[in-house]
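Hi there,

I know you've been waiting on this one. I reran it after we fixed the sequence typo, so this is the corrected version. Both the input and the resulting structure follow.
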Amino acid sequence: MLDWITNTITAFNYWGIALLMFLENIIPPIPSELIMPLAGFTVTQGKLTFWGVVVAGTIGSLLGALPWYYVSRRLGENQLKRWIDKYGKWLNLTNEDIDKSQDSFRKYGAAVVLFGRLIPGIRTFISVPAGLQKMPWLEFLGFSLIGSLCWNLLLTYAGFMLGQNFGLVEKFLGPVAAVVLLGLALFLIVWVVQRKKPAQ
């Protein structure tokens, strides 16, 4: 995955960053924790500008947040849950997750959208309760913009600072990549085990 992310950024520059961040908000296993620091590292090589990377990543994040929002808003809770019953297993998404996210949204409102963009794992699906509760799209876009901008700025700066010492970059990204791959492996194991359990 690390090589794929690196090659995409190298080949497409800002467009590649935007594309990766778009996919990261739709498909959970693609981590922004790798994308944006790597993009920040390219700034130190003079290939991209710091703010260009941040803007590209934030645009990708915003575009990636919209599909879940609009699908949830259009389908409504009942249809969405029926869809999750059929296909949610591929995204590790359950109806219980939807219920919990809606409870949080009802309790904390827009703050869930804002701070949810800063939390790995939650970031991908935070658009769902906003859509189900028919949060005004301009408000949703505004809070998503603030949260995404803060997150991408932090990760890009981390990559930029580490990029001043290539050895540190390798030491930092290597373990992160290993953790991500380990997490994916554990996810697959848990999913297989749960699927084999008899229905109660």
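Quick highlight: The chain is about 80% helix and 0% strand.

Best,
R. S.
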